[in-house]
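User: I'm writing a tutorial on reading structure tokens. Could you give me a worked example: one chain, its sequence, then its tokens, then a sentence or two explaining what the tokens reveal?
Assistant: Sure. Here is the example chain.
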Amino acid sequence: MSKIVTWLIIISACIYACNSVAAPLDIRLCYEDKEVIPFYLGEGEQVPSNNPGANIDILYALEKKSDVKFSFVRRPWMRCWEMLERQEADAVIASFRGHRVDQLNYPMKDGKLDTSRSLAQVGNCFIGTQLFHEYWRKKHVTENQPLSVAVPNGYAIAEKLESEPLLLHTVFSPKDGYRLLKNDRVHAVMGVCQVNGRNVYADQSGIEGVSPIYPPFEQLHGYIAVTPQFYKMHQPRIEALWDSVAEQDSTDMYLRYLFMTTLYK
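And here are its predicted structure tokens:
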């Protein structure tokens, strides 16, 4: 009898192990609860069932080719970082910043950041009035008075803008920044104007007389970045996920959302 019990235990353990290996890796990914075009559409904690944004469409596509399943959590951006620290979330989509290296693991190769495994390279331009265009060309002329730029709260690009002769106006969301631009309360906002090296600005604002300033003020790569604890537990599967990212071209997904409609009118 003891041999039968032993074999039953062994068989049960094997079945459990096989099922564990076969099950997709569940990744709790936190992303912003505000609309940020073309990355995320909709407001609040619900993930839209249709047109959720380019980043979410890309992750859904990755589920079909990778051994993962994303569980989405929408929260204010700074709350996502708190959830990562408390291990209530496993991942975010984020650019690489030096101060984040202790909080997140990014795809690396030979000790360096592997940009080939980013979701995309995105260029952010000033979307400004003609007055702002003229100002930016002569920004270091001492008699020029700084002009104002709207920047959403918590966005890392603010750190770089602080070193420029600008007045930064903090807003709740990108949409709020465009409203201020439309009402002549600021002279410019930051907007996506380039994807994977291609100039793709669409006049999303519906505001006459505003246009992007090329080249982009900042070029960023967006990564699926995971907590160090999660990476340590699932390193082979996370690396395989990043490899799958490198195999797909996401440009068309971003273009679809940039050109689908006038979203800030």
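What the tokens reveal: The chain is about 35% helix and 25% strand. The two ends are 76 Å apart (CA to CA).
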